[in-house]
């Protein structure tokens, strides 16, 4: 079983992700935990209509919560300028189709993630053998089929900029999925890492419920290429972030978080990669994200 890298609660950025509120980590960046995943709101409070960006879209059944949280932060009927995706797993796209239509907004994602967002390709099967835990055991039941946001789907700009978010850059961080991306802002050294690394043991239902801060690699049961996942963590650790917001767990900041991230990068094979699992030695996906077929 992979080792853990615990973090002290005082490394958290502001509030607990379990407190039922939108948690602000910077004046213009906040997140809310909805069931088992974080959605992120980028924009100044009261930014109004089209003055902000949503990153990821939660699980099925949380769409109204996302709308309510957005209106609470940005104003009644405030729509984002865009929805930007770290990747397309079920817990990040649950409200995507409905929200994109309701708000009439473009959806941006890496080209390699497009097959999973335009209805063309399903993700590979989950790996319930990876490190045990109830969440891993149940993972074959999680949806794998793609959503389809149709003509609203757009590629991220090749120059690394993030639409409607000046000062931010997107970074290709594959491994968990082919087109997984993270977002970086040099100004305050903030990284929005998606599931490239996370802050809780997502394989365990107990850890997910408790939300004890812990530096972890990407969720094991859905990670498709461990060698690329390792390189992605190394890439993000090299940035020396001051603040890290991830898809699962509390946002973290400061020296202890950085040290834990560097340790994760340096000891990735020992602390992040499962000792056994269907994708440990044989990656699951083709380069274009569309050639996978169930065995």
Q: What does the model show?
A:
- This protein is an alpha/beta fold.
- The protein has one domain (5-271): Ribonuclease Z/Hydroxyacylglutathione hydrolase-like (Metallo-beta-lactamase, Chain A).
- It contains eight helices and 14 strands.
- A seven-stranded mixed sheet has the order 2-3-4-5-6-7-8, with helices on one face. Strands 9-10-11-13-14 form a five-stranded mixed sheet, with helices on one face.
- A hairpin with a 2-residue loop joins strand 2 and strand 3.
- The longest helix is centred in the first third of the chain and has 12 residues, at 63-74.
- The radius of gyration is 17 Å and the shape is globular.
- The model is unreliable at 1-10, 14-19, 202-210 and 286-295 (pLDDT under 50).
Indicate the topology.
Blueprint: E1 5-6, E2 23-26, E3 29-34, E4 37-42, E5 53-55, H1 63-74, E6 82-84, H2 90-93, H3 96-103, E7 107-109, H4 134-138, E8 153-155, E9 168-172, E10 181-185, E11 190-194, H5 205-210, E12 214-215, H6 226-237, E13 243-246, E14 252-253, H7 255-266, H8 268-271
Parallel strand pairs: 5-6, 6-7, 7-8, 11-13
Antiparallel strand pairs: 1-12, 2-3, 3-4, 4-5, 9-10, 10-11, 13-14
Helix pairs in contact: 6-7
What labels describe this entry?
single chain, alpha/beta, 5-stranded mixed β-sheet, about 20% helix, globular, disordered N terminus, disordered C terminus
Strand-residue proportion? 15-25%
The count of helical stretches stands at 8
- The CATH topology name reads Metallo-beta-lactamase, Chain A
CATH uppermost class? Alpha Beta
CATH superfamily: Ribonuclease Z/Hydroxyacylglutathione hydrolase-like
Fraction in helix: 10-25%
